[in-house]
Each structure stands twice: as structure tokens, then as C-alpha cells.
TrEMBL record:
Transmembrane segment boundaries: 6-29, 41-61, 73-94, 106-127, 147-165, 241-261, 281-299, 311-333, 345-369, 381-402
Places the protein is found: Endoplasmic reticulum membrane
Role description: Involved in cellular auxin homeostasis by regulating auxin metabolism. Regulates intracellular auxin accumulation at the endoplasmic reticulum and thus auxin availability for nuclear auxin signaling.
GO annotation, cellular component aspect: endoplasmic reticulum membrane
Name this polypeptide is given: Protein PIN-LIKES 3-like
Membrane topology: Multi-pass membrane protein
InterPro entries linked: Mem_transp_PIN-like (IPR004776), PILS1/3/4/5/7 (IPR045033)
Swiss-Prot/TrEMBL keywords: Auxin signaling pathway, Endoplasmic reticulum, Membrane, Transmembrane, Transmembrane helix, Transport
Record-level GO BP terms: auxin-activated signaling pathway; endoplasmic reticulum to cytosol auxin transport
Family to which the UniProt record says this protein belongs: Belongs to the auxin efflux carrier (TC 2.A.69.2) family.
Pfam families according to UniProt: Mem_trans
Top-level taxon: Eukaryota
Length: 403
């Protein structure tokens, strides 16, 4: 396929995301107010507890077998690498831009955690639906695409709510000893509008002396690396790590891998096939709902903040330039050593995990701790606006390299 044909395939999924996101932003406007704070809260609950888990479980159960599971083992490793590279680049960005201490955790989160959930769930199946896609038969491609995206969503959520949540929690402790920034003028009940239910929100008072110790020693003192890792591990909230999406992924794996259970539930002649089809029907509603929520949450970024332009440009460079280039190298090396198989769609997904904008959960975590909400909203607005161009270009390049 020619480069122009690949560009056409790549641009269509991005346009779909932009259009639906725009609808969500429009519905959140004060004059419309169909996706206001309260409406987003209820829609978040439905997606978080019902639609998202149904989508992940049904897609994984239908497409994952023991044989395919052996091949997919590299995806969690690949996602882990994105977090490591992103954190390293964030550390350099913080040093170069002299990012204020209370925003450093947010910068690490934006650079390390990509949106590996709803964007991939929309973009990859949409690319498969194009008649001239380079991944083969559209129906088979779409089925595999949803499975890859669902696994990416589940694994990404585990890393976000273990590593990123713990890091940002420790950095939030500094706000107790510094003047409140502009974002602190917002009331806590108004700030908890993210992807997770409001009942999970808590204040930045929820910290320990270990948080202060780790922050102070990282600023100028010395602390053994193993003790620092132990501190971070101690901050992991298992309730958030094993969120409904992660639990649904485990259930989907069990159904797909264990042959007796698979024969009982998967397939047109399976006795309990109606359970799988019902879950799939519920899950299809997750994609448009997630995208509407994304657009509604971006509205806050239009109000602006005092975040440094250099920080925004740095995050844009990390997520739209350096990480995608590193991703190409990682996947190519993994393919050379036979760790990713020959499925070009799978390799495309692995590369795309490096090119997506920051995870919306990062904004949710800033809302949890009432620290840098307005700054994160502005960063999200700019990164997602830039992603409309960068994702198209990187998707085209990825497909060209794999075709």
C-alpha cells in the first residue's frame, strides 16, 4: 500500500475520536449542561462498574486462547517499558524546566501513563473497518483489535493505579507545607469529576511520614534505592489496582484459556452463550460513553491556568516525539528476537501504546489530591489537541513500517 493510502486509513479513526469528543465537550457547556458535573459522575459510575468491565471481559473471553496468551505475554512488558521510559524523560524534563515541586508528580504521570484504554478501543477497530487496511480481513481484524485494546486497557489501568498513583500521592504531600496554588481555590466536591466515582476521592491529608521522608530525601538527601522502592510499593492501593476493569480482564482470561469453561460460554452452540452476547452488548456502549466523558472533561482546560509553557511543550515533546521513536525501536528489537510473533496488527498496537496522549486517569488523580487540577486540565487539552495530528502521522508511519 502507498503512503497516502495508509494515511487515509490512519486519519479516519482519529477523526471519529475528534468528532465524538467534540460532542462531549459541547454537551458539557454551561448553556447545554447535559454532561455537567453530576451527569458525568453518574455516567462515570456506569462506565467504571458496568460497561467497561463488560467490554473487557467479553472481548478477551472470545479471542484469547492458551496459544494466543503465550504470544500476548509481551504486551504487559511493553506497557511497563513505556512507563519506565516516560518516567526517565519526565525526570529530565523536570530538571530542565525547573518544574515547581507541587507539579512534578503530575508531570511524571503525564509523561509515563498513556491513554491505553478508550483511544485504542476506538482507533484500532476503526482502522480495521477500512476496506484498504493493511491488517487483512476486516471482521477478523476487528475482533483481534478489540481484544488487544481491552488487554491494553486492563494492564494500563493496573500500572496507573499502582505506580503513577503512588508517585503522585507522595508528591501531593508537599502541598501541606506550601501555599495553595490557583487550582486550590476549587472546592473538592467540584474537582472530583474524573473517570472514577466520586466516592473514591479523598483529600491530600491522607499521607504518612514516609511520604515526607521520600520527598525530602529526593530533594537533597540520600536514601537507599531499595528503601525508596519499598516506600513506593507501600503506597500502592490494592483496591484501585484491582479495579473492576482489571478483575474483568482476569475473568476474561480464565474463560478464554480454560477449555471447559470456554466451550460452555463461547461459541454459537455453547449452552451459556447468552451470557457472553449480553456482556458484549453492554460493552459496546462503553466506547461512545468513554469518548463523551473525555470531551466533557477537556472543557476545564479551556479556562486556562498558570502552568509554564515550557512544561507543556516538554510534555508534548515526550509524548509525541521521543516515546514513539523509542517505541519503534523496542518493538523492532522484540520482533527481531521473536517475542511478538508475526501479527502486524499486534505489533501496530504495541507501537501505538507509545504514541497516545496522557491517560485521563492522571487528571483524576490530581483531583483526588486537590493539587494542580487546572494545570492538568490545560495539559490534557493541549496534548489531546496535538494528538489529533500526531496520532494520524505516527499511525501512518507505523503501518508503513509494518506493511
Amino acid at each position: 500500500m502507498g503512503f497516502l493510502d495508509l494515511f487515509t486509513v490512519a486519519v479516519m479513526p482519529v477523526l471519529k475520536v475528534i468528532l465524538v469528543t467534540g460532542v462531549g465537550l459541547f454537551l458539557a457547556l454551561d448553556r447545554i449542561n447535559l454532561l455537567g458535573s453530576e451527569a458525568r459522575h453518574h455516567l462515570n459510575n456506569i462506565v467504571f462498574y458496568v460497561l467497561g468491565p463488560a467490554l473487557v471481559a467479553s472481548n478477551l473471553a472470545e479471542t484469547i486462547t492458551f496459544e494466543s496468551f503465550v504470544t500476548l505475554w509481551f504486551m504487559p512488558v511493553n506497557i511497563f517499558i513505556t512507563f519506565i521510559f516516560g518516567s526517565a524523560l519526565a525526570w529530565l524534563l523536570i530538571k530542565i524546566t525547573k518544574t515547581p515541586r507541587h507539579l512534578q508528580g503530575m508531570v511524571i504521570g503525564c509523561c509515563s501513563a498513556g491513554n491505553m484504554g478508550n483511544l485504542l478501543l476506538i482507533m484500532i477497530p476503526a482502522a480495521c473497518e477500512e476496506s484498504n487496511n493493511p491488517f487483512g480481513d476486516s471482521s477478523v481484524c476487528s475482533t483481534h483489535a478489540e481484544a488487544y485494546a481491552s488487554l491494553s486497557m486492563a494492564v494500563g489501568a493496573i500500572f496507573i493505579w499502582s505506580y503513577v498513583y503512588s508517585v503522585m500521592r507522595m508528591y501531593s504531600a508537599i502541598s501541606l507545607n506550601s501555599p495553595r496554588d490557583n487550582s486550590g481555590s476549587e472546592t473538592f466536591s467540584e474537582s472530583c469529576e474524573g473517570f472514577l466515582p466520586i466516592m473514591d476521592c479523598h483529600s491530600s491529608d491522607d499521607y504518612t511520614a514516609q511520604d515526607e521522608l521520600l520527598l525530602n530525601t529526593s530533594a537533597g538527601g540520600k536514601i537507599p534505592i531499595f528503601k525508596r522502592i519499598k516506600m513506593i510499593m507501600g503506597k500502592i492501593d490494592l483496591k484501585k489496582v484491582f479495579a473492576p476493569t482489571a478483575i474483568a480482564a482476569i475473568v476474561g482470561f480464565i474463560i478464554g484459556i480454560v477449555s471447559p469453561i470456554r466451550k460452555l460460554m463461547i461459541g454459537e452452540n455453547a449452552p451459556l452463550h447468552v451470557i457472553d452476547t449480553s456482556a458484549y452488548l453492554l460493552g459496546q456502549a462503553a466506547i461512545p460513553c468513554l469518548t463523551l466523558i473525555l470531551g466533557a472533561n477537556l472543557l476545564r482546560g479551556l479556562k486556562g491556568s498558570n502552568v509554564s509553557i515550557s512544561v507543556i511543550v516538554g510534555i508534548l515533546a515526550v509524548r509525541n516525539m521521543f516515546l514513539p521513536l523509542l517505541g519503534i525501536g523496542v518493538v523492532k528489537v522484540a520482533n527481531r528476537f521473536g517475542m511478538v510473533g508475526s501479527d502486524t496488527l499486534y505489533q501496530f498496537v504495541l507501537m501505538l501504546q507509545y504514541a497516545v496522549p496522557p491517560a485521563t486517569a492522571v487528571g483524576t488523580i490530581t483531583q483526588f489530591f486537590r493539587l494542580g487540577q487546572s494545570e492538568s486540565s490545560v495539559i490534557m487539552l493541549w496534548t489531546y489537541a496535538m494528538a489529533s495530528f500526531s496520532l494520524t502521522l505516527w499511525s501512518t508511519l507505523f503501518m508503513w513500517l509494518l506493511a
